[in-house]
Write a structure and sequence with these properties.
This protein is mainly α and 59 residues long. Helix content is 83%, strand content 0%. It starts with a helix and ends with a helix.
């Protein structure tokens, strides 16, 4: 293999973009944030009831 061919092969390898872009990271982060907010909203009543039952037991 010639040196020029090897250099061209290495350049072509690094030109190929893999992975997520910043926009995709933003979408994933917003979906995770939305899921956390929904979970907190759904569990807030149960958490409040648990805290109230514990405080009613304490003197």
């Amino acid at each position: 293999m010639k040196f020029a061919t090897l250099c061209a092969s290495i350049r072509a390898r690094f030109r190929f973009e893999e992975g997520q872009t910043m926009a995709e990271y933003g979408v994933v982060l917003s979906v995770i944030t939305l899921g956390i907010l929904v979970a907190i909203a759904a569990l807030s009543g149960g958490i409040t009831n648990a805290i109230d039952s514990v405080t009613s037991i304490l003197p």
